[in-house]
Amino acid sequence: MEAITGWWDDFFWGSLVVVELFFVALILTVLFGLIGAAAKLSKNRVAHAIANGYTIIFRGTPEILVLLLFYFGSAITLTAIAQAFDPEVKFVDFPPFWAGSFAIALIIGSYATETFRGAFLGVEPGQVEAGRALGLSNLQTFIYIRIPAMWRLALPPFGNHMLSLIKDTALVAIIGLEETLFVAEQAIGTTGKPFTMYILVGAIYLGFSTIITLSVMLLERYANRHLEIAS
Amino acid sequence: MNDSGQASIIQLENVDKYFGDFQALKNISLSVKKGERIVVCGPSGSGKSTLIRCINRLEEHSKGKIIVNGHELTSAVKDIDAVRREVGMVFQSFNLFPHLTVIKNLMLAPKLARKSSKSEAYEVAMKYLERVKIPEQADKYPSQLSGGQQQRVAIARALCMNPQIMLFDEPTSALDPEMISEVLDVMTDLAQEGMTMIVVTHEMGFARSVADNVIFMDSGEIVEMNPPKEFFDNPKSERTKLFLSQILTH
Amino acid sequence: MSFDIALIIDSIPKMLMGIGLTFQLLFLSLALGTALAIILLLMRISGRWYLSVPTMIYIYIFRGTPILVQIFIIYYGFPQLEFIRESIFWPILREPFGCAIVALTLNTGAYVSEIFRGGVIGVDRGLKEAGAALGISATHRFIHITAPIAIRLCLPAYSNDVISLQKSTALASTITLLDMTGIARTIVAETYAPYEVFVSLMVIYLILTWFIQRSFGWIEKRMSRHIREEV
Predict the structure, then answer these.
(1) How is domain C5-223 classified at the architecture level of CATH?
(2) How far apart are CA B5 and CA B8, in angstroms?
(3) Model ipTM value
(4) Which of B57, B188, C57, C118 maximizes the CB count within 10 A of its CB?
(5) Least CB–CB distance from A205: residue in C66, C168, C195
(6) What's residue C228's pLDDT?
(7) Residue B99: which of C135, C136, C149 has the nearest Cβ?
(8) What is the pTM (predicted TM-score) of this model?
(9) 3-state helix, strand, coil in chain B (%, to 5)
(10) Is there a domain that residue A141 lies in?
(11) How far is A174 from chain C (nearest CA, A)?
(12) Residue A112 forms part of a structural domain
């Protein structure tokens, strides 16, 4: 245990990076998920096909492969673009944080697409009709009726997506992001205690998943509060 | 209630049953003789299902004594299965095993619980399938049968264990009207052969023609118990009269 | 930026050489993990706290931490512990392949036991009561009534987990194993052509995923042939 003293700081900053990565990826995930769900629910056949392709590709490909592809691919592309302007440029690196959050968001977003689609379909049409009958516009019914109803249905499975998200952030270490696994490697270099360090990383992630699970539980209670009072 | 010399095959003494704070059965005392046919009726939530489910210990009674076929039902009775082998139950939602054919549904319990051989179990199963008049459905799956047929299979399944007592929990309530009589016919035949039966039902015609005694339950209590003629023509309690007026006007 | 077709044609056979390892990782971990899951399930539903509580903790830990971290703990971390080095398991845990199998097995076991538990809970209470009313013992009820129905109910979730496991096998490349992803990474390191190599690898994984889905779809159809709409 004494091996860890002196490293608490670094693990703290590493954990912070994980938290940043989580929230950025989360926002992007919701975005991709909503766009994907909209595409799947629309009557436009092209949108439908693209969305289907999207979900199939990102649900069937190993996450690490997506990460590697994005990271190295964007680096190569960026380098090519930079070289077009300045032939002297050897190699442009792409920040792993952004490659990582984008890649993870695309992956989890493909699962969120299905979840959101199912949740939108689960909204009772009668409620939407009632909104229209009352004179609310399309946008208003979407914001005030569809989204709240859909959110309650989507929450339990989306909670699982969030758990997958936080766990996938560990993979970004493979493309060089300086988060907890990176810190662990350095600590191992000086202390020679890989088990201790990696267990600590595991404990940090376990802490994060616990927080997420509890938060989702609270959110679910909040979302369903009108049902609890009734019973 | 037990005034003839015959021994009672089911005996309930001062039975209470609580679900948390809610009292489903209040001080129930009942004696059922061998071969007796009893119909239990009453409004929803009156405790009728709870009563018969306590008899085969699908529910555990909280206070009082229940003696079935000579065995007292206590929390210490390890051999609940032995008691249940002698008591058959037919459920409102049939509960046939969906992954087994009709004949396999009938053979399962005899093979596992009575250690019958496959051929013995098969013979008994076909015998009862013929009794309920659908032997040709033997190799079908439950989902391929109509509701009335499924319930008849459920009755045959219970009979394959050769029980001393048959309990029916609203056997026709989940059936479309045109299928009710095929099931009631089977139950009537069973009654005429001398099976001890307790039937929870709303089918008053059946009660009138088959029952030895009709029990009215309300809010967990046995309000009235009388032979059908007395019960329907001369109800004693106000609550019974109210209930009868509500269901018999349809 | 050009698309080097020749490189793709050259790389695919090389990557496919890793498919044997991918399959070994997949099938071995799946078999062992499923067996472990059955044991965990029985412990979890045993009703005895000294069996169910440790099981719940185990499942919580393995589902709450990234699988990459679990792999690192076993591969990099275990050698730190003396009692591991001196145990009979050391020959297995010394090799990256053994470590990968152990990590994937332990992880899959946790997820699949929860899937099985979901199936068991999903079996209609009335069916268990009917079995009880017939005098069938609890053990027999579980084997002949609950289990067959639960298995059919779990199949969709189980097939998803098999696909997840297939994706996780790619993580073996992070501990030096040359499965398909491992080989791909070495090719990219030499050729600087992430798009060609990784995209073709993605296609291979997608084909594998498609096979798994088709197989399970067939199994599900066969198991459900008697569950048709009510007449």
Answers:
(1) Orthogonal Bundle (1.10)
(2) 9
(3) 0.86
(4) B57
(5) C66
(6) 55
(7) C149
(8) 0.84
(9) 40, 25, 35
(10) yes
(11) 8
(12) yes
